[in-house]
Amino acid sequence: MVSRAARNRNVSTLTGREAAPRAEHRPVADREDPADASEPDESADARQNRQLTELLNELRVALPGVQMMFGFLLAVPFSQRFAGISSTQQSLYYTAFLAAAAASVCFIAPTAFHRIVWQRGAKGRLLGVSNVLAIIGTVFLAAAITAVVLFITSYLYGSSWAALAGGSIVAALVSLWYVLPLAVRLGAYH
C-alpha cells in the first residue's frame, strides 16, 4: 500500500507541483447542535430547508406503518370472531384504533401546515410545530403498538401473557424511542 507522502511525491513529480493533501475522513457535525448553528457555509434558509427535508423524510418512514396498522384495525370489527371478544379486549382494540388515528393525524399535520403557510415566511414556525407534532405522533404510535400487542396477546394467550408482552413492548419503546435519545441529547451517552 502506498503512503500519502509517496502519492504526493509521485503527483508532484508528474505535474511539477505539489499535490494538495486529501481531507481526512471525519464525522460530519450535527448542524442541529447549537454549537454548529452558525456554520459559515450554511445560511439560515438553507439550514431550515435541510431540517424540513430531514423531518419530512422521517415522517415518510413512520407514516406508512401507522397507516397500515390503522387500515388493519379498520377491518377487525367486521370479522366474525370480533363479536366474541371480552369487554377488556374491546377497550384495548378501541384504544389502539384511536391512538393509530391520532398518530396519523400528527404525522400528516406538518404536510397540511406546510401547504397552508408555504411562501409566507413561516418556515421556522413550521419546523417548530412540526417537530412537536412528530414527537406527539410517536407517543400515539407507541400507545397504538402497545394496545395492539396487548389485544392480540390477550386474545391468543390470555391476560397473563398479555401483561408480559405489553410490559416488554412498553419497556422497549420507552427505552429506544425516548430514554436513549434523551440520554444522547443530555450528553449522558456518547
Please render the helix and strand layout as text:
Blueprint: H1 4-15, H2 44-75, H3 87-117, H4 123-157, H5 159-185
Helix pairs in contact: 2-3, 2-4, 3-4, 4-5
Provide structural commentary.
The protein is mainly alpha-helical and 190 residues long. The protein has a domain at 54-185. It is 72% helix and 0% strand. The model is unreliable at 10-15 and 20-29 (pLDDT under 50).
**Could you tell me the mean pLDDT?**
81
Largest sheet: none
What string gives the helices and strands in order? HHHHH
Helical amount: over 70%
Overall number of strands: 0
Name its key features.
single chain, 190 residues, mainly alpha, 5 helices
Brief digest:
The chain has 190 residues and is mainly α. The protein has five helices and no strands.
